[in-house]
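Write out a record, focusing on structure:
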Amino acid sequence: MSSLESTGGNPPVTSESTIETTTEKRPSDSNADTDIRYSTRLIPWVLWPTLIIIVLFVGVTIAFPEAMESGISAVQQTVISTFSWWYLILAFGFVVFCIYLGFSRKGNIKLGRPEHEPEFSTMSWLALLFAAGMGIGLVFYGMTEPLIHFATPRPGLEATDPSTGAAAEDALALTYLHWGLQPWAIYAVVGLAIAHAIHRRGRPLSMRWAVEPLIGEKATRGGWGHAIDSFALIGTVFGVATSLGLGVTQMAAGLRSMGLVGEGDLWVEYAMIAVVTGFVIWSVVSGVNRGMKWLSNTNMVIAAGLMLFLLIVGPTQYLAKEMVQTFGHYLQNFIGNSLNSSAFYGAEGDAWQASWSTFYWAWWMSWTPFVGVFIARISRGRTVREYLLGVILVPTLISVVWFGVLGGTAIFYENTRPEWYTSVVGSDGSVDVNSALFQVLEQLPGGAVLVVGAILLSAIFFVTSSDSGSLVMAMIATGGNPEPPNRIRVMFAVATAVMAAALLLAGGLSAIQTLAITIGLPFTILMVLMCIAVFKALHVNVQRTEAIRRMAFLADISDRFGLESDDDAVDSGPVSANTWWSSLSRERQREIHQRVGPHTGRRVRQAAGTAGEPSQDDNSQPDNTSQPDSTSDSSRA
């Protein structure tokens, strides 16, 4: 099979005149003789607009940090106060959309060829998801966010003067809302659209191909595609640089709480950036299957150890009961809290939304170019239903346990105030987000070890986030090469580190953070288009699967009973065919596909109603994905 056939008739390069290519084995192909041409150089129309915007922004921020921060903050406040309702509806809508896909027949579609198996074990896959999707935020906000909600309840609850128990319950339920179903659904829809394009349609690993079913191949390869990838690259660079700055700020606070460095030692943050960037380069060079996989698994072990230690040594019974109750409160009030725009509390409600719910939805959306591409990269071989369960449900449950243990521990000691415990909440209800975690941990049994573990956890999350970010930036900048050259990965790792250090020096991290959030608004339109595109593509997949099964069903009736057709079977449609198909053994299913596949490609496409679809999908693998190894490859169907 030629390289053109394996990718639906088109080589996955954007322009041979501007991109140097090399022949490499495609990782997702099972055929050893299949060669694909990938870009090994940066795409000018993606790279240069990105560089110009980033250099201008960083230069102005370093020169005028206070003016930039105030200006961008004003823009952010305007965006959030004006479009908070849109963010709320969209985040909730993505959850509903994912639930529908998971329970529908579209959930059986496999993200890859029928013979493809998952590249990573389930545990390693989940570890990589957490490292890229949440990462250092889990450590940064693990105790501080529940404490802040507890010390300063949201406007609607504060007006009722809640009891201590009600405030604690609402604080944890709100934290679950911000780190639960919505953020992972936001990541999932983008990742699914990209994963379907690259693993089923044979497209390069780039953001642009997620909307190809809507805008067509020509526009995807041309200016619109370049604009989408450039926009995604800008968001990724800003997001990773912000994480680097916030990560070193928290780690430095941990070292200062241990007395290892002084309060005025400003060199610590820059030394940490240099050291961590060295580990990032090592991880980048070793690849996803080695360095990053090992670091992600190590981080999961450390995080689980920290959480279990707090659960066992701390108020175990309280934490167990608190998690059950607050999780129930979260589920019971999920729809109301998801759509609560604080509309009846004026400026106070807008300020709270700008700091929390709407802020979070915009923040997650600004990260989707980075996280979506990375999740798509590591999710080959899983069905849509398995993908959604892994990307949404499992991380949500883990987040509930994580915040329930860490946040519940902090709230318990704030309530009970043992003699040996010093409150970390100020008299005005303020909480230091950088040092609150370490202030609580150092007062617990084995406090020094816990603080070291938390710093190590932050550092490894720091490395994995930067590593995955560098990989994604390199993939986008090279037009979707799943294994971009190490020199390009290292270049982006060093560039984001230098950018973070420069902004940290100028005090411009908050400016870049607010800009990253503002970028989330125009990206919402692209996310809606991705949902429409992946729905359309999955619908075609289901139709083609059902067409193949119906034809095989009628052929089987003809073989057994000598009948050319069966009106009852035809009228009942796919339901009868699917029921019959499920009753067959895998060997029989494979035999049927081998018999009907070579002769029925055109009839199947006509029966599925795909005449208006892009031609490359007609040459892609068949869609009998509920049985992983029961269908032939694209050359047979």
Notes: The longest strand covers residues 21-25. The mean pLDDT is 78.
